[in-house]
């Protein structure tokens, strides 16, 4: 098997036929043994029916249906575990990742890379959004040392050994951009112009994005904890200096009661800092909790396709 294409799908019944048409053309061009793995991530619409239909009509298509919505990261993992190809491509179902780009990515892999990442330019994005995400990736790269590129998303092709490396990382909390960065290997980048989603709706809300951002920051190391140590030290030193000043001042000038503002600022400021770093601690604790339960990442309720029925008509 030369290539597996893993596609996580959540409520994509309308996108799948078009995706299949586009992909089928590209795969025929590749001209070697390929498979497409549709992972239905607990969709509530007809995605599974559509996946069954495509698998029936095209024997290159296989599908897995998860028992409920486990999230995109889990769906991708399910697909990766199932993929048999020497190379594995991961792409979204919503046609925001142009299948035509695949041939260029495969060609780049021939030059010996283990990962080829399609990097979406932020041209045409709302200004605020692109500014925020640029800032976020700056912070992420400063705080972790995995080197995640802004816009380098989940459209990528991996070699077999890169896939095996990703699969060997068994953590429950999967921030995949970070995992792909963590495994290393030679990585090439292909730029592409992002297009707005034409079918269906994005599953990302602002709240989800913020949570995803926090995941990225705390999933990879304990630098935020280190930061809290430094900040604590700084505050302690400042407080010590101020204390010395107040003691001397009182000894020289006697007791003066005012100081309400200082008190209020100190209590409120320190209270805020405490809560913030309790939160940071909690983030790590929560992750330990989830990891220790060692629950499976996902459950599969149905799979099929890939058989070679003699009457198979290719679409
Ligand atoms: N997706 C998924 N499970 C989810 C959410 C999304 O498998 O819980 C899939 C979705 O079907 C799509 C891809 O992940 O193929 C990217 O989702 P979306 O287009 O909503 O994200 P965006 O492109 O807006 O970042
Ligand atoms: Mg999308």
Automatic annotation (TrEMBL):
Pfam families: Glycos_transf_2 (PF00535). Signal peptide: none annotated. GO terms for cellular component: plasma membrane. It comes from the Bacteria. InterPro entries: Glyco_trans_2-like, Glycosyltransferase_2, Nucleotide-diphossugar_trans. Keywords: Transferase. One of its GO terms (molecular function) is transferase activity. Belongs to the glycosyltransferase 2 family. This is Stress response protein, glycosyl transferase family 2.
């Amino acid at each position: 098997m030369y290539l597996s294409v893993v596609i996580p799908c959540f409520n994509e019944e309308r996108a799948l036929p078009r995706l299949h048409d586009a992909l089928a053309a590209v795969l025929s061009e590749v001209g070697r043994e390929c498979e497409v793995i549709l992972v239905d991530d607990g969709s509530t619409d007809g995605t599974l029916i559509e996946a069954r239909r495509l698998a029936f009509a095209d024997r290159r298509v296989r599908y897995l249906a998860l028992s409920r919505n486990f999230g995109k990261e889990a769906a991708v993992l399910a697909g990766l575990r199932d993929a048999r190809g020497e190379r594995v491509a991961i792409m979204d179902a919503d046609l925001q990742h142009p299948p035509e780009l695949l041939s260029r990515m495969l060609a780049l892999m021939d030059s010996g890379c283990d990962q080829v990442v399609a990097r979406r330019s932020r041209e045409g994005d709302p200004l605020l959004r692109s500014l925020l995400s640029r800032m976020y990736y700056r912070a992420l790269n400063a705080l972790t040392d995995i080197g995640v590129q802004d816009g380098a998303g989940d459209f990528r092709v991996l070699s077999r050994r890169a896939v095996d490396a990703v699969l060997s990382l068994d953590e429950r909390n999967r921030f995949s951009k970070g995992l792909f960065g963590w495994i290393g290997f030679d990585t090439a980048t292909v730029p592409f112009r992002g297009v707005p989603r034409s079918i269906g709706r994005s599953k990302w809300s602002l709240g989800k994005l913020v949570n995803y951002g926090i995941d990225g920051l705390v999933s990879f190391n304990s630098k935020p904890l280190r930061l809290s140590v430094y900040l604590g030290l700084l505050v302690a030193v400042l407080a010590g200096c101020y204390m010395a000043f107040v003691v001397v001042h009182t000894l020289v000038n006697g007791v003066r009661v005012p100081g309400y503002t200082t008190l209020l600022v100190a209590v409120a400021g320190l209270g805020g800092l405490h809560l913030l770093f309790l939160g940071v601690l909690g983030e790590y604790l929560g992750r330990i909790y989830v990891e220790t339960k060692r629950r499976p990442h996902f459950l599969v309720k149905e799979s099929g396709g890939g058989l070679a029925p003699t009457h198979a008509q290719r679409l």
